[in-house]
Amino acid sequence: MNIFDFFTPKALTYYLFDDSTIRQALEKFDKHKFSVIPLIDRQGKYITSVSEGDILRYIKNDAAFDIKKAEHIFVRDIEKYRSYQALDLRVSMERVIELALEQNFIPLVDDKNAYIGILKRKAILEYLYKKTK
After folding, report:
1. Are 36 and 104 in contact (CB under 8 A)?
2. Least packed by Cβ within 10 Å: which of 10, 26, 34, 42?
3. What is the DSSP letter of 80?
4. At what angle do helices 93-100 and 121-132 cross, to 10 degrees?
5. Beta bridge partners of 119
6. pLDDT tens string 38-63
7. What is the pLDDT of residues 15-26, one digit of tens each?
C-alpha cells in the first residue's frame, strides 16, 4: 500500500485562500457540494480547513449578519470548530488510516508546509475493499 494510491494532486482539488470572504466560501460550498474545504495562504501554505458548520456557527452567533456583511468577513477570521490535520508525504500508512477514521479527507503538505493535495477517505476505503475481494 502506497500513499500515492489515494493521492489527489492540488490541481485537481478545490481550496480557499485565507483572504476569501464568507460569501466566496458559501458560493464554493454550494457550487461543488462540499462540507469542508482546505484553507491556504497566498504562498500556498496549508493553514487549516473550514467547514460549512464553521460558517453557520459564525452566522448564528452574529445577530446582525446579512449577505452583504459576508462580503467583508474573511474565512481566516472565523473560529474553526475542528482542525483538519495535514500530513506530509513521509507519513506511515498506519497514521493515514488512523486520521482517515476522523477526517473525510487528509490534506497533504510538502516539507515546507505547502499544500500539495489530499487523500480522500473514500479512495482509501475503496482500495481496502478491493483488496479484500
Report:
1. yes
2. 42
3. P
4. 110
5. 7, 106
6. 999 999 999 999 999 999 999 989 87
7. 999 999 999 999
